[in-house]
Amino acid sequence: MSEIDLLEKQKEYTELLRDILPLRYSAEHPKAFVHTYGCQQNVADSEKIKGMLEQAGCELTEEKEEADIILFNTCAVREHAEDRVFGNVGALKALKRKKPSLLIALCGCMMEQEHIAEKIYKSFPYVSLVFGTHVIHRFPELLYNAVTGSKRLIERGSDDGRVYEGLPVHRDGSFKGWLPIMYGCDNFCTYCIVPHVRGRERSRQPEMVIDEARNMIASGYKEITLLGQNVNSYGKGLETKTSFPELLRRVAEIEGDFWISFMTSHPKDASKELIDVIADNPKISPHLHLPFQSGSDRILRLMNRHYDIEKYMEIVDYAKKRIKDLALTSDVIVGFPGETEEDFQQTLELIRRVEFTSLFTFIYSPRQGTPAAKMPDPYTHEDKARRMGELLRLQESISARRTASMVGRQYRVLIEEQAREGILNARTHGGIVVEVPGSPELIGSFMTAEVTEAGNFILRGRLV
């Protein structure tokens, strides 16, 4: 069945749901609660699920207690995220007992793992619907079958290599939005479960991406974030080859006053062309998220990262040279199996050398089904926690110096939210938060802020 035919079939199921759901729940617009765990790609998937729920006649709610349908979109990247899901699903048992008609569904990356799906089936009998990342476009059909059938439904599917366009979207924000440009990952880092649960890389047609960006801008969006597990791989498999720097440039050419950002950029594919496009276009955020994971070439080989520190520093040095007010962030894993004290010290040395704006730090979490989970690991959690503490103290001192250097300067900022009474959170083009006095009416607008005070990670200032 073609993509068009399959999506037309889903529209038929949507119409059936509009008739059936009000009868099942004795409400003209049954209420649906959707909670997302994990990355921005999961958030974008949930926005599609919410869009399909709305088309089926549901009303979205932020309160689980009043929901008729509860759906958790799960993350499999770290054990902590999985434990949170299990704990929160367990807490739903009492709600199901009070409201027997409540339909509980789980989807996302966790559900693409067979052992997880089996655990859900055996341990949580009140979960009616389980489905993976590869069948999100079939959600209306799955929901219909779960509502009308007498059996619990598990649908994990397989990666068919297709991109399904035209799914409805309920965007969570009104001025900041996510825009996926590709799906899946071909890198197979030894610690990472993502390629196993999200499938191989497949890119959206550039025209589709540009049209969606144009529509978002026309609707008032001020910042658009292009999403991909590795945006630098964008274009693979397209009949007309389009590189990520070219796509980025074309989006930036759309008329309007807006910012563009993107994530995530893999160091092995990051190019000088990409850096030049960022440097030459004021609409593109001068923020580069470039995960290095480890400062040890030996560990990088064990991770299957396909670059060394020399290659990494080549692109970092070029970015620092070309991009004004560059904000450079990264991911780092502490305690990868077999990481020695020498390996860890090399990581610290890289952090000192680069002086990152901020870091996203993780203690290694083994993922069943990945090669790293089978590697010998002689170090204890206490050893790894000690190293993590040392790393965090180093980065805190670096961040404090960087934020202190911003005092007295003025920046264009996007007002994002109210932090507390009378105080707003604004964000610079490089992604750094500045707290400023102001009223909520300013949220969603561009302003100019002068930095007057610096903490380790947050600046304070005033609107000019």
Summarize the structure.
This protein is α/β, with parallel strands linked by helices and 464 residues long. Helix content is 37%, strand content 21%. Helix 1 runs parallel beside helix 6 and helix 10 packs parallel to helix 12.
Describe the 3D structure.
It is a single chain. The chain is 37% helix and 21% strand. It is α/β, with parallel strands linked by helices and 464 residues long. It folds into 3 domains: 3-155, Rossmann fold (3-Layer(aba) Sandwich); 176-404, tm_1862 like domain (pyruvate-formate lyase- activating enzyme); 410-463, OB fold (Dihydrolipoamide Acetyltransferase, E2P) (Beta Barrel). The strands form 5 sheets. The protein has a 6-stranded parallel beta sheet with strand order 2-1-3-4-5-6, with helices on both faces. A 5-stranded mixed beta barrel has the order 15-16-17-19-18. A 3-stranded parallel beta sheet has the order 7-10-11, with helices on both faces. α5 (114-123) links the parallel β4 and β5 (129-131). α1 packs parallel to α6 (139-148) and α10 packs parallel to α12. The longest helix has 24 residues, at 381-404. The relative contact order is 0.08.
